[in-house]
Amino acid sequence: MTAPAPARAVRSARSLGALMALCAAGAIAAPVGASRLTDAEAGAVLRHGPWPAPWSPDPSNRASGDARAAALGERLFFDPRLSPSGTILCATCHAPFRGWQDGRARARGLADADRNTLSVMNVRYARWFGWDGANDSLWAQSIRPILQPREMGGSAAQAAALLRGDAELACRWREAFGGPPPASDDAVLAGIGKALAAFEETLVTGRSPFDEFRDALARGDSSSMERYPAAALRGLRMFVGEAHCSTCHAGPDFSDGGFYRAGGASAAPDRMADRGRYAGVEQLLASPFNLLGEYNDDATRASAARTRRVAPHARDIGRFRVPSLRNVALTAPYMHDGSVATLAGAVRHSPGARLDARETADLVAFLESLTERTSALPARGPAAPCAGR
Tens of pLDDT along 93-102? Predict the structure, then answer.
């Protein structure tokens, strides 16, 4: 969890005030009994739903929301040939059975990386990507590990050759994009990123005990609310109240997408201090795949508005993006550098935290209640051969 920012706290207070007004007017039920929530607490809880949250396809990616592109992206996600070594694939670091991350303190591809692997679950709700926001679209973020020497160590030429030379992949490309892979290697690489993003957009966590409690609160269903564990409820009240966690871990995905200093070791012992968001902005603006470039499919270019406004500022040094807390109990270790091994450690590590053992345990119980009970992932059998071959 991250420290509150004053400006965001003001905006949060204004929104919360509106919800409190609804509570007072009877538009939001906040029953007592097992819930023991004030109207203000109830309003804050309701802001963390409903789940799954509404979502719209990415206008910068013409393949977004397209099942044919997602099928191509799924194949590429599990294809080690995107790495010239033939030993590293996207799922090396984003393993489905480990919560779509790798369980390591720092990622490892062809060599050790500097940062912890973020899960790709719910990534479709993000505005910036990676710990430092070095990419402004999911498809650009999907390209990054292909080119990184310490991750997959590939190139645009090598990835394009794979698409052009494999009959099945080339067929699925035609289905997804309406024509053969283009002559430009960079254009093919951009399309690979867009297909990967179309697949990753389908990775959404299922509903959790918290969601059942939140929706029961919205209905005024006290009997259903009674099923929520007492320790989790105490932790939830702290989360939306005195601990100020929901200032930054906001909304249905429990992240406001902002960048803050949250502690952790600044660098691996043999490397320079991690500059975080500052370096991310530098990389973003230098990338040929950012939303200001030719591969943005949004004809209006409205999707590039945020990118036009960013610039590297000294205040961003050492700041990192707020991660989602959904399924957080499944994605240890924590922090950008993987320096915190447990949820209890992450709670105690939060800036300004002055918690006793009971309060820490209650917050952990709440965070554990954000773990899905049933998967939201679509059932996928063996993929049929490409019809256009």
Answer: 999 999 999 9
